[in-house]
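thought: user wants a sequence for this fold. calling inverse folding tool.
action: design(structure=
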């Protein structure tokens, strides 16, 4: 029976529930009461259900009618999202935005940027992947690897645990170790070796050049640049440093 169902019928059903009567629904929708009654009757015949109890002067929702009115409200909301999404895509917004964030990227500016993106484009489907070090860009370079005895970690939190336990030294994002530096459990190291990464590691956004960025991605990139100085521009807060356990 789905082929005979129309959004207009659902709008009438919701209008009756909102206003309390056929006549009030007609005034809201700018239709005569007979048109409202005809729409309801057509819907009842198509679905094989009585949606209203007409035993009294004013028709009242049956239990089935009340349940279907709630369903109609949900369908209409989704239809509105459908229309907004179609219009946004036609205007250049991508249908969905997948993004991978490296663990070196500070979390607070990312959260603020995504909150802004949600406010700007509430219907954009965003899929966020949080990746281990260097995983957001494959194959990424190895930073600060100058020893023949190596501990390699995909999980940066595990790397921090090993550093705190005294297993050598390594480069860490400043925002993850600042509290430990303040507490004295880690110390910042100045290592005179050309193979060691400088105190700051730049943050960059990468994407497939064959797939131009859509409106949502461009907005998010601009906001991330504003929040974190991503991909050049004025130098921002120190993003990483070489640290070791305090002995």
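)
observation: tool returned 247 residues.
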């Amino acid at each position: 029976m789905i082929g005979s169902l129309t959004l207009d019928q659902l709008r009438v059903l919701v209008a009756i529930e909102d206003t309390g009567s056929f006549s009030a629904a007609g005034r809201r929708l700018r239709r005569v009461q007979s048109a409202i009654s005809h729409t309801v009757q057509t819907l009842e015949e198509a679905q094989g259900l009585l949606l209203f109890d007409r035993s009294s002067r004013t028709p009242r929702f049956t239990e089935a009618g009340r349940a279907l009115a709630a369903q109609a409200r949900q369908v209409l909301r989704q239809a509105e999202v459908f229309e907004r999404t179609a219009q946004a895509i036609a205007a250049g917004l991508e249908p969905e935005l997948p993004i991978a964030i490296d663990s070196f990227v500070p979390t607070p500016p990312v959260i603020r940027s995504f909150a802004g993106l949600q406010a700007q484009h509430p219907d954009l489907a965003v899929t966020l992947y949080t990746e281990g070090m260097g995983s957001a860009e494959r194959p990424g370079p190895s930073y600060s690897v100058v020893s023949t005895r190596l501990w390699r970690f995909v999980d940066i939190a595990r790397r921090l645990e090993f550093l705190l336990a005294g297993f050598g030294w390594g480069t860490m994002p400043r925002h993850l170790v600042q509290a430990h530096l303040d507490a004295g459990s880690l110390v910042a190291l100045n290592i005179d070796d050309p193979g060691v990464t400088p105190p700051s590691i730049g943050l960059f956004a990468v994407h497939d050049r064959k797939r131009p960025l859509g409106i949502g991605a461009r907005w998010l990139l601009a906001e991330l640049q504003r929040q974190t100085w991503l991909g050049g521009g004025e130098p921002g807060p120190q993003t990483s440093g070489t640290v070791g356990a305090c002995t």
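thought: summarizing for user.
answer: Here is the designed sequence. The longest helix spans residues 63-90.
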